[in-house]
């Protein structure tokens, strides 16, 4: 039902459409690619100690993938643009020649997104009729 706010039905219809579009844009969920999801999850696991090289090393160790630093930085930039991570410069350290690390943390929106992803995956896994089993065939 459209409530008439103005004398013109056409104008109120346009206004209603514009408000509906804004609401749908606010409610639209941002989807992540697999690598962005892994980076976001790794930032969460590292609890405030996440920076480029440490993330690269942790992802390589946990996944067995060859990960390059520029891939991690690109994913972090996209996640920050989406509002899922925040960054701040840490304190200068002697080991880095006085340079500061950019440390990443997961935002509330990022936590919500990870929780939604986990719920979807758990839902699908719980519906598997025959879960994958490790089996070895001996000929």
Mean pLDDT: 82
* Poorly predicted runs: 1-12, 21-27
Number of β-strand runs: 2
Using the coordinates above, name the CATH class of one domain.
Answer: Mainly Alpha
Using the alpha-carbon principal axes, give the shape: globular
Strand content: 5-15%
- Classify the oligomer: single chain
CATH topology of one domain: Arc Repressor Mutant, subunit A
Q: Report on the biggest sheet.
A: 2 strands, antiparallel
Structural class: mainly alpha
Going across the major beta sheet, what is the strand order? 1-2
What would you give as the CATH superfamily of one domain?
Winged helix-like DNA-binding domain superfamily/Winged helix DNA-binding domain
Helix content range of the residues, please?
40-55%
- So how many helices? 5
Distance between the termini: 70 Å
Rg, please? 22 Å
